[in-house]
Amino acid sequence: QVQLVESGGGLVQPGGSLRLSCAASGSDFNIYTMDWYRQAPGKQRELVAGITSSGSTNYADSVKGRFTISRDNAKNTVYLQMNSLKPEDTAVYYCNADPEVWGVVESWGQGTQVTVSS
Hints:
By secondary structure, the chain is mainly beta. 0% of the residues lie in helices and 52% in strands.
């Protein structure tokens, strides 16, 4: 099972940018689709963006054009570049490793807080 550690969260003003990182260890990074989820207080966890092992990406409508997901397979790391941040982007952001093969368990990181406020 892969272990995931997120970093890069913090407090940013509206319109600002942050880059989240998720470092993976303990398993073959290349067998996972990597996703970023977020959960705001009182709301359900939602998928923000995902990237397959081959590099195909998908985004929630609410972040299209503002967020970019990428991965560096050599560094076993996935990134989420967040631009033009809005107060409604405030949430705990979680990294998820979703296996593309049978018999492997998915993994979650511990989460990193992103707060967008003036």
